Amino acid sequence: MNLRLCITFRSTVALTLGLIGLEFASPLAQGAAPSVDPILYTCEVVVTWPHDREAFTEGLCWADGQLFESTGNYGQSSFRKVDLKTGRPVQELKLAPDYFGEGMTLLNHKAYQLTWKNKVGFIYNLDTWKSEGEFSFEGEGWGLTTDGKWLIMSNGTDELRFIDPENFRVVKTIHVVSHGAPVKNLNELEYIKGEIFANVWQTNWLVRIDPASGALLGTVNLSHLLAPEDYTQSVDVLNGIAYDAAADRLFVTGKNWPKLFEIRLHPTTPAP
Asked: How much is the pTM?
């Protein structure tokens, strides 16, 4: 069991938000998300698990005692059930080579998986492990999660769409902001205890978002999870968040990472 603390910047909020790629813009219009000071978090590594180095992780979920993963890259994309103890897939559905798999979430015994630029998503039955059809959406597909009612989708901007899983219509859109600045490059998503957790693409930062207003609630730097010897040419950025609600366990990994980390987050400043 590894109980080391991940290093995070204990600097000003402005510096922290600049590091994760915020573009400081003009003040928001009336009715937009309120300004709040995001809480900085450190992370404690509880357990280090193996992860498949060949998995270009785009989505990660936990349900019914099982870990599920969506992987990307053309010709290598898949939806899989993963053995936590080995990091290897125990069941797998491969996408056609012209599809680049993206974010994925689980709802009502079904898995919903996005593709990057094809504007189509796939539905799988988790009981039969067979396809149950497709759905379409506008723009690019990046991350996907659910609040138990709606699908929540990112597209690489500061926008999150709430989608009806019955007819796939957009029922609500929020823009993620902090002090009037858009938080862009939102990627993999996970809904945890009433908040949306998101990876910020091209960084090793995790952010916490208010799903009602889009306000940025917290940030944590996970760039020191991997030891220097774990890095190879194929290792890419942090991407992959899964939450085991029954055991209150939070898992994170990255694209082609050799390890998956079970972590706990600790605020460096008191919550308001």
From this structure: 0.87
The predicted-structure confidence for 81-97, as pLDDT tens digits, reads as follows 999 999 999 999 999 99
Which of 171, 250, 68 is closest to 162 using CA atoms? 171
pLDDT level of residue 237 (50, 70, 90 thresholds): confident
Average pLDDT over residues 134-139: 96
Alpha carbons within 13 angstroms on the beta-carbon side of residue 184 total 9
* CATH fold for domain 5-267: Lipocalin (2.40.128)
Whether the CB-CB separation of 43 and 8 falls below 8 Å is answered with yes
pLDDT in tens, 178-193: 888 999 999 999 999 9
Instruction: Identify whether the C-beta of residue 193 lies closer than 8 Å to the C-beta of residue 248.
Output: no
